[in-house]
């Protein structure tokens, strides 16, 4: 005699519609003390026929142990929500909250996902090794093509334009490689030979002005350096 298939699961999901949900639906869910995640309000989803779908949230519940359909339906009934569905792929489901892997759909913002009761979803957005290599190549090409030579400028770009994968690569994974490229571009823009030439010219100019009787503070003002630096120049 075969055993019945286990219909329980540790993670469940259901949609929730603003017009039918209680005003305090978030507080109701919080009272179960179960980690849960709220998607951005999906108000730009389109049906295959081009019609705008009803606005809705996607809710994901995470349990330490398996829960039955009946147990979860008690929760959805309290929220006036449609019947729940179990999920065997929490990662795919969480990423679907913003259509991350569905570029043909409207792309919602990751920062608009709200985690409740200790839910942690960062691992579901972590890049794989192959994905990191692809993103690193994108970063390197962008830095090279844009001739960015400053780490702060690049991080600022990531923040301003919400390039979160680039930001992750630059701060958590390949900081050394990126800094080496930035430094190489900086050296290209500011060659040492040019710096040495500028330094030599300033020393010569300081000595020439001093020989002509120009006071040290006037030399400093002319060259845009301190009097202490002028004194060092004159020792050369």
UniProtKB/TrEMBL annotation:
InterPro entries reported in the protein's UniProt record = Plasmid_rep_OBD (IPR002631)
Citing just one GO molecular function, the answer is: DNA topoisomerase activity
* Pfam families xrefs: Rep_OBD (PF01719)
GO process terms (BP): DNA replication
Per UniProt, residues of the Plasmid replication protein origin binding domain are 5-122
| Keyword set, alphabetical order | Plasmid
Keyword Calcium attributed: no
Gene3D superfamilies on file:
3.40.1310.30, Homeodomain-like (1.10.10.60)
Could you tell me what this protein is called?
Answer: Plasmid replication protein origin binding domain-containing protein
């Amino acid at each position: 005699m075969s055993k019945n298939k286990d219909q329980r699961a540790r993670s469940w999901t259901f949609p929730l519609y603003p017009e039918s949900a209680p005003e305090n639906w978030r507080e109701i869910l919080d009272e179960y003390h179960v980690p849960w995640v709220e998607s951005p309000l999906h108000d730009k989803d389109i049906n295959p026929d081009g019609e705008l779908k009803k606005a809705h949230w996607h809710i994901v519940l995470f349990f330490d142990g398996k829960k039955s359909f009946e147990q979860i339906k008690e929760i959805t009934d309290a929220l006036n929500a449609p019947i729940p569905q179990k999920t065997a792929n929490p990662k795919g489901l969480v990423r679907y909250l913003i259509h991350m892997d569905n570029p043909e759909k409207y792309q919602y913002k990751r920062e608009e996902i709200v985690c409740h009761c200790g839910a942690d979803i960062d691992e579901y957005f972590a890049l794989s090794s192959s994905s990191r290599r692809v993103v690193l190549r994108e970063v390197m090409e962008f830095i090279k093509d844009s001739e960015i030579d400053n780490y702060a400028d690049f991080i600022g770009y990531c923040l301003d334009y919400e390039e979160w994968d680039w930001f992750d690569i630059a701060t958590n994974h390949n900081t050394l490689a990126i800094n080496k490229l930035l430094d190489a571009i900086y050296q290209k823009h500011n060659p040492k030979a040019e710096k040495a030439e500028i330094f030599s010219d300033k020393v010569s100019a300081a000595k020439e002005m001093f020989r002509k009787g120009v006071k040290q503070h006037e030399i400093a003002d002319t060259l845009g350096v301190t009097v202490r630096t002028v004194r060092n120049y004159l020792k050369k």
